[in-house]
Amino acid sequence: MIIGRKKEQKKLRELYDSGRAEFVAVYGRRRVGKTYLIDEVFYGDITFRHAGLSPVGTDEGGVKKNRMREQLAHFHQSLMMQGMKKCDPPKSWLEAFYMLESFLTEKDVTNRRLLVFLDEIQWMDTPKAGFITGLEAFWNSWACHRHNIMLITCGSSTSWVLDKLVNNYGGLYGRLTYEIDLQPFNLYECEQFFLSKGFSLSRYDIAYAYMMAGGIPFYLNFFDKALSVTQNIQALFFDRGAPLKDEFERLFYSLFTNPEVMKSIVIALNSKNRGLTRKELLSKTGITDSGSLSRQLKALESGAFIMKYDSFGNGKRDSYYKLTDPFCIFYLRFVSDKSSRKKKEWIGAANTQAVVSWNGLAYENLCFNHIKQIKAALGISGVSTEESLWSKKGTEDAEGAQIDLIIERKDNVVNMCEIKFYNDEFTADKDCHFALMRRERLLREILPKKASIHNTLITTFGLRHVEYFGDFINTITLDELFQNM
What we know:
- The protein has helices at 6-16, 34-41, 68-81, 93-107, 131-141, 158-166, 187-196, 203-213, 217-220, 229-238, 247-255, 259-270, 278-285, 291-302, 326-335, 346-349, 353-368, 371-378, 430-444, 478-481, and strands at residues 22-27, 46-51, 114-119, 149-155, 178-181, 276-277, 306-310, 319-323, 385-392, 401-409, 413-420, 452-459, 474-476.
- By secondary structure, the protein is α/β, with parallel strands linked by helices.
């Protein structure tokens, strides 16, 4: 049973039944469920399937050299295993795809849909292999002229799929007939996932699990319903043989050809909650300012590891890059060898200042990943908006200020959002009141005179009706973030 993905399932079946040649690209970060989606939607309908060989292994530096010959031999083996007549292995990708054409021609006896599924396609494209040339020849010279051919390519390297397939300006320009950017589960889908597994979890605990593992089905599948969420975190990350203890390294080495550089960018961005400007990032990492950095940032952004936003009130002059991937943030804070935590017992660390600080940051990122639900709760789903955060450094004469989330709306309203992760109703006290007044005053200095400010609280269980509760015009609870959107 597939959790969520209703739109994707419906579209894939429509494409299968279209009666014309279809070339589909499915992409999204590793472990998000791309292969599972295709396997379930097309169970029993796949004519030929093949997955590239992973570059992660035990060779030099933990990465296989992954020669073209090994990929071709593996492709040849897939053909043999799925019924192709015995023949010598191909010496090039052109020859490999000619073999695939012959294989499919033999299968085309009833004129039924012939579905080809190439998984982890970026791993087949080894240096100087000519893989794209072979794929171009296969599609342009043969497959696109046969109405019963459907080619589905899957890739965990979103940047590779975007560069080589979606935005290809060579022989594959405009050849894709559909693309699916498969996103991690939102909170509603996480809830449905746990319910399907027989879990009995509160929405607070589901949010906590999301704050640690994100909406990645592969990670959530490790949870044990006999354990609490806190015990599950201990088992997944800190116990001997913990399944996600080394996932950070595996993730980057499997996705990027330059994993150490990509990790250095993510680690640097993790050092500041608000993120870093390009200039600050260069200073912190020592990376050369070049087009390569732009491509690296784009790859991390397209892979949903980071977000780019413009500093509120400064237009495009101060763009920031912020780490938003829940798994990476948790790992770097508490699991990596360079983190400052005690590795023995997560349960005992739950109330430490480091974990309490992480709770607040992780809940902020959860909110950034559920902007659609926040807008729906505000009744502004149809209003064009821009989201950012804002901070002002303090001086000797004045305190600094930070606004967790700003939603700038085209209807001349700005939602100034305070985000609080609490295990009870939030109480707005005198300190909160004066902090809100100060932030509102500072915000008004850079807003157009026609704009209205709506103080908005996003919290777990709502706002206690005490003296200062009226400071907030809107209150959004955790339940509202579980909307199915």
